From TrEMBL:
Residues 132-190 form a coiled coil. It comes from the Bacteria. It comes from Marilutibacter chinensis. The keyword Metal-binding does not apply. Belongs to the membrane fusion protein (MFP) (TC 8.A.1) family. This is Efflux RND transporter periplasmic adaptor subunit. InterPro entries: Beta-barrel_RND_2, MdtA-like_BSH, RND_pump_MFP, YknX-like_C. Pfam families: Beta-barrel_RND_2, BSH_RND, YknX_C. Residues 254-326 form the CusB-like beta-barrel domain.
Amino acid sequence: MNSSNDLLKELRIDRSAPPPSSRRGLWITLGAIGAIALLAVAGWFAFGRDDAIEVRTAEAVAIGGSDGGSASVLDATGYVVARRIATVSAKVTGRVREVLIEEGQRVEEGEVLATLDPVDAEAQQSLARAQLDAARSQANSIQAQLTEAESNARRLGTLVGQQLVSKAQYDQAIAQRDALRAQLVTARRNAAVAADQLDIAGIGVDNTIVRAPFAGVVIAKAAQPGEIISPLSAGGGYTRTGIGTIVDMDSLEVEVDVNEAYIGRVQPRMPVEATLNAYPDWKIPAEVIAIIPAADRGKATVRVRIAFKSKDPRIVPDMGVRVSFLEKTEPARADAPPPGVLVPGVAVVERDGAQVVFVVSDGRVTQRGVQVGRTLGDDLEITDGLAGGDTVVLDPPPALADRSEVEIAGDGTSNP
């Protein structure tokens, strides 16, 4: 009986006892929630996120000169060239004795640049001087003989009148006098020739001195003391042909090749704005000097010469330069619309019957409607809808839409 009661007591639920531990269940629940969250994130990355579209871009360039009163009608590229440049050499072949120039040195017209070994030229000069002295000495000797012969002729002329000497003696004295007169003329001419030869020999000595033909700056030093130079390069590659190269910096100008399809937009005396590649923020005023009346058949271009209106030591030969040919316009009114901008033609596309561009900002694009003006080469003038400095998408793909996320291809934007 007691054993049956004991068994019933063991089966009774003790409600006062503490609940069993549930930590293991809690960890299982948290693990399930984490797995669900990871699956959700992976699903969003796989299906819910839009892929960024890779695009090429360019920057819109404001049209107009630095004075605000001109509009660019054509852009071109070229190089700075010197109209007055010379590789200076001696007139004769010789060994260089001294070089007095260095690159970057300013020289004046007539300044000595170098000297050659003058031994041969000086020897020729000494010989010519000796020949002149001999010719003059001979002329003086004949002059003395002539003076004596003239005295004898006068004396015999008096005696023959008194019949103290024969007529034959008098005639002989006259003949000797006339012969000496002829010899004196020849001797004096020989002395004059010797004097000319001495002058020529002096020129030969002067030819061993190399002088600057005009004022300028030395841009190259080509010879060193001890080398042989020749204006004809008689020694092939082992013979120098010049001492150095001088450039007249006041003669610097720009030469550009303009596509013959657009040469009609360029006129002589037309204002130009030049920008050196080395100084992209420096706008240099210039103007068209001349349009060379010849076309390049291979490149289909016409060469145009452009003069700088201001000189500056930063401008040096062979620098790359970009020029904008400007067209004078009327002064802008207060209520006039702002000047347009220039963009590549491939940046403008048609969407829903309207011409639009896509402007990039903070990794996304904004679709803008634009008004298109003139066509300038491969570029288009945008009169409304864009501002200078805006970054536009080139060749927008059909999938590109307003607020689309984009990734710029390459290393950034490029200029039109």
